[in-house]
Amino acid sequence: MFRGKKGVIIGVANDRSIAWGIADFLHKNGAQLAFSYQPGVLESRVRALAESVNSPFVYACDGAEDSSMEEFFEKLGSTWDSFDFMVNGMAFANKEELIGRYVDTTRAGFLKAMEISCYSFTKSVALSERFMKDGGACLSLSYYGAEKWMPHYNVMGVAKAALEASVRYLAADMGPKKIRVNAISAGPVRTLAASGIGDFRVILDWCSNNAPLQTNTTIEDVGKSAGYLLSDLSSNVTGEVLHVDGGYHIVGMKNPLAPDAYKV
Fold first, then answer.
1. Which end of the chain is more exposed for a tag (fewer CB within 10 A), N or C?
2. Which residues contact 173 (CB under 8 A, 6 or more apart)?
3. Residue numbers annotated as active site
4. Global pTM value
């Protein structure tokens, strides 16, 4: 499916991250990949994963710094003059902002979540534009907390809502260049990042017990769906948020005012 195609994966943290599930599927289907890592302790993990898929292109990229993102794409440009797709899986909120009430979110915590979880995607699309000379596809990662209240998601839900709105506006901007922009809203997935969300195991159980397919989403599920959105199979699809959650979003949330709303 992706033989002869090249693309960038931003935001891989480890082999349990959703971005890695996408990268693994793309590699198995012939894609040549470049990776970014968040400066610091993640470098060795990402380099090892990149090596496992025969990618020598691994550079630092801090989603909170324009200069870092620009430098990442400049370094990539010294090797590739074009690529076909870009995936940005960056997301971050201070752990303390996911505890208690959203109304108590700090200004600093709000801005940090927005710039990394939302604006970094806008910036990465802007920086990818010159590489997608014959069109291409850009993909971000969202979650159902962008549409409905979710316990312990707080400011991240607000940031993801802004991200989904950005997808629609970016799709309109990039459409004349034949660059498609979409997002995947996965159900709760057992990732390192998700472990920081309170009562996450309860949410997993609730999802598998109530979703029409009675299952939880895996990174492999997301990888397959990303393959569709990044390939020519979705050649006329843009500005969409694809749910990969076993139908979780169809069931909807219980009344958050009910004391047993999340009891399984």
1. C
2. none
3. 143, 153
4. 0.91
